[in-house]
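#struct-queue
[09:14] JT: dropping the first one here, sequence first, then the structure tokens:
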Amino acid sequence: MSNTKTSTTPTSTVTRDVRQLDKETGNIYESIVIISKRANQIANNMKEELHGKLSEFSSSNDNLEEIFENREQIEISKHYERLPKPTLVAVDEFLHKKVYYRNPSKEA
């Protein structure tokens, strides 16, 4: 359903060596900003994808019984709940050099 999960991305919290995070940039704070911006992108993409899939089930005259009995909708929601959190995906992508970033102040 979603292409955000990779085989190496953990689905639960992982203890990280902080020194691994600043290897690429030389600055832990810059690395955290890059990771957080990427996590926001991933979260927004997942949210749009989920809303798109759930909107297929919405109708203008839903009654209460139809809302609680829609199994496909529940399965889609459960699938997204099982996916790794956007922050975990972003950290994994950053550590495996799958994130493009640039710092204009360093380039000048």
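[09:21] JT: and here's the second one, same format:
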Amino acid sequence: MPSPYIIIVDPFSSGALYAPKFASLGYACVAVRSSPNISARFARGFQPGGFLEGRLFDIDEALERFGAAQAIAVVAGCEMAVAAADALAQRLGLPGNPADSTALRRNKYPMQQALADAGLRHIPSLFIRNPDQIDAATAELEDIAYVVKPVNSASTDGVRFAHGRDGARRALRDSAWQQINDLGEINQGFVVQPFVEGPEYVVDLVAHAGGYTVASVCVYEKIESNGSRFVYAGLEVLDPRDPEYAPLLDYARQAAAALKLQLGPLHMELIWSDEGPVMIEAGARMHGGVAPALFNDCYSPNLLDLAVDASLGRAIETAEVQRQQHGRIVFLITRQKGIHPGPVAADQAALRQLRSYRGHRAFVSQGEPVVPTVDLATCPGIVWLASPDPAQLARDDTHCRTLAAV
């Protein structure tokens, strides 16, 4: 007789953490893919442990195999799973976010329109569906800095910076129209937005029956390197209960409501300029990569536990999580073109001896080409650190930046 199970759509990146957590609570999980066109970068990260039959199913195949009536929850594992998870939850009559507003929690243009409609600070945006519209759509652009990016990409994939109308037009003409992006999806068009100056923050929220719980607040460190003004160098874990961040969190909660978030995690990126916080973009999924693992060391309760509790309909009474220790992700930076030499044994040993060391990951393998780091896509690797002592964290951060390879 079929047993109850939880569906995890696209269990890649940080979505790979869900199945072991659900399994520890006694729940079976089934892995499904949102599309047959999952990019190789994500697909090779699939971890079969914890899933029924240890494989990735097409959605209809899974429902037939395990019984649609036995599914008790649907979870989006990563960015490209958002639309499929919303639609599947609605199809099965399970709790989820409304499928008719998925675009607000996935695509960069409609989410800015939703903020504007709610009377919240937003970034004025042009949406250009095809290259034929470039000249007409950009006719009114001013002599200021702009950001050009795909409407449905993630991270910094396809992002270009430009100045003025002519610069924006050049950036748009050079963009990857109708090409497959890093998520394995075809770019559906591009947005042009004024560049907003200020520190960049990340807020992770979890929606549940009791409202929104702030599961993390972080700030990026960016530096100028290799001809780029916006190279990511670090991500610092902050204290959500610090009154300094109250305006940021108040805005983030209002923005989440404008995006019609009703259940589960929302990963939001914001700029805090002189005029106040403004959302850059958001996605209805957990913070990607290693961040949830770092948060497990730094916050109580942590993001993964809150996301799981929300999906199971458990009561959550915490408004903001408590920071228990300091944490940081160090983004390594390559400054020369070459071939990755592979892990250096001495560096590996020294890294593991750092008091705050919690883990590291290389994004290139031995023998693969490396290029100067100009964005997240060209970052060669990361190290994550946690310690109750911020001075220790700073010392270990400095050491990490001496590494030739991880």
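[09:30] RK: nice, looked through the second one.
[09:31] RK: The chain has three domains: 5-94, 124-194, 200-400.
[09:31] JT: good to know. The longest strand covers residues 211-225.
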